[in-house]
UniProtKB/TrEMBL annotation:
Presence of keyword RNA-binding: no
Annotated transmembrane regions: 29-50, 57-81, 127-154, 185-207, 219-246, 266-288
Entry keywords, A to Z: Cell membrane, Membrane, Transmembrane, Transmembrane helix
Localisation: Cell membrane
Protein name listed in UniProt: Branched-chain amino acid transport system permease protein
PANTHER family: HIGH-AFFINITY BRANCHED-CHAIN AMINO ACID TRANSPORT SYSTEM PERMEASE, HIGH-AFFINITY BRANCHED-CHAIN AMINO ACID TRANSPORT SYSTEM PERMEASE PROTEIN LIVM
InterPro entries registered for this protein in UniProt: ABC_transp_permease (IPR001851), LivM-like (IPR043428)
Amino acid sequence: MFAYLLNLSVLICVNAILAMTLNFLMGYAGIFSLAHAVFFGVGAYTAAFVSMHISDSLFVCTAAAMILSAGLSLALALPALRVRGEYFVAASLGLQMLAVTVFSEWRSVTGGLGGITNIPAVKVFGVAIETANGFFALALGFLVAVGLVLTVLVRSSFGRNLQAIRDSESAALALGKNVAAIKTLSVVVAAALAATAGVVYTFYLSFINVEGFTLDLSVLLMAMVIIGGTGSLFGPVVGAALLMLLPAALSFVPGLPQAEVGLVQQAVYGLVMVLLMIYRPGGIVGAGKRRLSTKGAQ
């Protein structure tokens, strides 16, 4: 049972990193992306390729994953963010579909539908990480590091500019802000940080394939952000934990066939999101923050 909970904890950390970085776009920049799983996948495949052919150092693999993911996001953001927000949604959806095809067909790099197996253990200062406890510490460390980076960015002048653009692009332009550059940089930062989740995921499983980086994951990450609370640093972590614990809880429901767990899970996701939109449109943490601020104003 302890091993199961440890495994679940690692996966929660991975998804929390992805949800936090997507929230940086959605909650603070007002940019809705359906391609976040792509940057997760690029980070994962890059880490696997680098560890098998260049270096098994965690720092080298992470740097390569972040650089490549950031470069890909730049290619998406530069043309798409020069127009209205809905065009970025369409462009990100196109990138997601294209990436799945590339992941499936570029067999020499991604292993095709069969994926990449026997990924070597990653090393930190020459010490290999091979135990579940070690990977939990690694995942938690990455989660804390990403959280700290996002906290600093959100509270900096860059974060304030980003939120000003989210609230009113016209007003930001009138104040002389370079809206396109600020929004593009936010996409690059989010993609680079999302790649770190792919690094942890790759070495933890020692196997990756395209099934882990599809549109379904991008939609699920968006659900995590909305349920937890957009525009709050801790909300996406809550959303990720809830949506990862839900299927685990459903698997223990007596009388529920395992084949039906996925269908019930989707129905519960939909119901939860509908109820939140009606009663707590700011999400679990977001709604709580608004109540506190309202009381403070009174």
